[in-house]
Design goal:
With 284 residues, the protein is α/β, with parallel strands linked by helices. It has helices spanning 12-15, 26-41, 57-63, 75-105, 131-139, 163-174, 228-242, 257-265, and strands at residues 6-10, 46-50, 110-113, 120-122, 125-128, 143-147, 149-153, 157-161, 178-183, 203-206, 248-253, 274-278. The strands form two sheets. An eight-stranded mixed β-sheet has the order 3-6-2-1-9-11-12-10, with helices on both faces.
Length: 284
C-alpha cells in the first residue's frame, strides 16, 4: 500500500450540532472545504473520515444497533435492530452527502466511501476492510471521504463501526505521518472542558506499553454510541504505539490556526492544540 501524508478525522461535534437531530454546521464544513482545496492543489495525499454527530447516533441509540440482533430477544426485537440499522445508515449517509457536496462545490474531487458491505467486524473488531478501494481512488486523484457506519458483525449480526476505529485500521495500512482529530474544542483537557479548572494538555506522551503521561478525566453524551473522548484517546494511543512513534496524533479545533498549520506544515507552530506522541527513553 502507498503511504499517505495524513489522515484527518472531522469529529461529529465539529461538523454537527450534536444535541440537535440531524443538524449540520454548514459554515464549518464550507470553511474546511476551502482549506482542503488548497491541500489538494498541493498534491498532498489525505484520507478524510468524519463522525456522525447528530446524524445516526440518535437512531443507533434508540434501536440498539451497536448490540446487534443475533440474540435471544425474540424476532420482534431482532427485527427492530435491523430496522434501526437501516434508519441509522440513512442518517449517516445523509451527512456524508452534505459534506461531500460542499467539497465538490469547492472544486475538490471528493468521493463518499461507506464502510457498509466492505468492512466486517467480529465482536466489534475489524476482520475485513476494503482499504484497496481507498488506495485506488487516491491513485486516480480522488479524495476519499469515509464515515462512521453500520456494518455487519459475524457474532452479533451488526454493530456500529466508529470513525475512530476506521482510522486505526487505515493507519496500519497507509502509515501516515500524522493523524489530525478536528473537534469543537482546542484539544484534550485534563478534565471535561466545561469544568472551570480544566487545563488544555499541549503534549501527551505515550509509553511503549500504552500508558499516558498525564491523567485525563472525561465525560460522554448519553446518545454517543461510539465511545466519546475515551475512544479517541484509546485510538490515539493505539496508533502511536502500533507505529512505534512514527505516527503522531494531534487534536485541535476545526478551522483554527492550529488546524491550518497542522494540515499545511505538519506542526502546531505554537497554536492551541494537543500533540499525542511516543515517549522515548531520551525523553524521560
Amino acid at each position: 500500500m502507498m503511504q499517505v501524508e495524513c489522515i484527518i478525522k472531522l469529529g461529529g461535534s465539529a461538523v454537527t450540532a450534536k444535541d440537535h437531530l440531524e443538524t449540520e454546521k454548514l459554515d464549518e464544513i464550507r470553511k474546511f472545504a476551502e482549506l482542503l482545496k488548497l491541500q489538494i492543489l498541493s498534491e498532498r495525499r489525505i484520507i478524510l473520515v468524519h463522525g456522525a454527530g447528530s446524524f445516526g447516533h440518535f437512531q443507533a441509540k434508540e434501536y440498539g444497533v451497536a448490540q446487534g440482533y443475533h440474540s435471544n430477544k425474540g424476532d420482534a426485537q431482532n427485527g427492530r435492530a435491523k430496522m434501526g440499522f437501516c434508519k441509522t445508515r440513512v442518517s449517516v449517509t445523509k451527512l456524508n452527502h452534505i459534506i461531500v457536496n460542499e467539497f465538490v462545490s469547492q472544486g475538490v474531487n471528493a468521493v463518499g466511501v461507506s464502510p457498509c458491505g466492505g468492512w466486517v467486524t467480529d465482536h466489534g473488531s475489524v476482520v475485513q476492510s476494503d482499504t484497496a478501494s481507498i488506495q485506488n481512488l487516491l491513485v486516480e486523484g480522488y479524495q476519499p471521504v469515509m464515515h462512521g457506519d453500520c456494518v455487519l458483525d459475524r457474532h452479533q449480526g451488526c454493530t456500529i463501526l466508529s470513525g475512530d476505529t476506521i482510522i486505526e485500521k487505515l493507519c496500519s495500512v497507509f502509515e501516515p505521518k500524522r493523524v489530525i482529530f478536528l473537534t469543537d474544542i482546542d484539544g484534550v483537557y485534563d478534565k471535561p472542558p466545561s469544568h472551570p479548572d480544566a487545563q488544555l494538555l499541549p503534549v501527551i506522551k505515550v509509553t511503549h506499553d500504552g500508558c499516558l503521561s498525564v491523567p485525563v478525566a472525561t465525560t460522554q453524551q448519553a446518545h454517543d454510541v461510539t465511545g466519546g473522548i475515551l475512544k479517541k484517546l484509546s485510538t490515539a494511543t493505539s496508533i502511536v504505539t502500533e507505529s512505534k512513534g512514527f505516527t503522531t496524533v494531534f487534536v485541535c479545533r476545526i478551522n483554527s490556526s492550529a488546524a491550518s498549520n497542522l494540515i499545511t506544515h505538519g506542526e502546531l507552530l505554537g497554536e492551541l492544540g494537543t500533540e499525542i506522541k511516543m515517549q522515548f527513553r531520551e525523553d524521560v
